[in-house]
Amino acid sequence: MTHKPNPLSSIKISGPIPAHLARSVIEETLRNAILDGRLPCGTAMRQQELASLFGVSRMPVREALRQLEAQSLLHVVTHKGAVVAPLIEDNSAETYALRILLESEALRLAIPLLSENDIEQAGALIDTLERETDYTEIGRLNRLFHMTLYGKAPNQRLLNLVEHGLNEEERFLRFNLEAMGLGETSQEDHRELLSLVAQKKVEQSVLTLRNHLMRGMEVITHYLNSIEQDNDKGPR
Predict the structure, then answer these.
(1) 149: which residues sit within 8 A by CB, 6+ positions away?
(2) A GO molecular-function term, please (predicted)?
(3) Between helices 135-150 and 156-180, what is the axis angle to 10°?
(4) How far is CA 159 from CA 31, 69, 164, in A?
């Protein structure tokens, strides 16, 4: 009888972890492994197994898992504990509608506080996105671009919620972006948005962002519906 390899075996730990860094190291290590697919959807995150892997007590593991759950990367399932969350939820349209509200407000608050350096950094990310062909990296760069525009918003709780939504989208895009064909349209939107932000045109910037996110929601919804229809048809 063959046994499936344990996904946690893909995580390599180099040397002991200082106690004061344990929670952040565990959180970042697991986050990266979830985002790049080494820890697939449904993988159980057992505290004692993780504590042994990282060579720490269960306390920093528990704290790290709570942070990942708050970022929607883990779900708590009855009788199973924490597991890696699905790539995207069935309520993706509702999630995107909430993102539009949150990101619009974050952008509105941030624009008056953005510096020329922030604008240059966002422009450099667009340039890199246009050259990038690795879909894993495209998802990361997309998140960084948006957070560069929102990052000066003075409401930290709002920013945390916004980043959680972008984390979820990044993870989904890593595995599905090529099939959806979002590349060129996305960059045109980004350049238009950045131009308006640079001119401090707040309301026009927010409207452009909302349109950009609406297009993303429509493409993802259409893509998920097409997959569902294919699954319903089944093998012929």
Answers:
(1) 107, 110, 111, 114, 118, 122, 193, 194, 197
(2) DNA-binding transcription factor activity
(3) 150
(4) 18, 17, 9
Of the three residues 61, 84, 107, the one that is the final residue of a domain is: 84
| Prediction pTM value | 0.68
Q: What is the DSSP letter of 15?
A: S
List, in sequence order, the alpha helices (H) in 36-134.
47-54, 58-70, 92-110, 116-131
Structural domains in the chain (count): 2
Residue 148 maps to a domain: yes
What are the tens digits of pLDDT across the range 38-56? Answer: 888 889 999 999 999 999 9
Burial 180-194 (b: 16+ CB within 10 A, else e): bebbeebbebbebbb
- pLDDT tens digits, one per residue of 160-201: 999 888 887 777 777 666 666 555 556 889 999 999 999 999
pLDDT of residue 165: 84
Domain-located, residue 2: no
Least confident of 15-29, 101-115, 162-176: 162-176
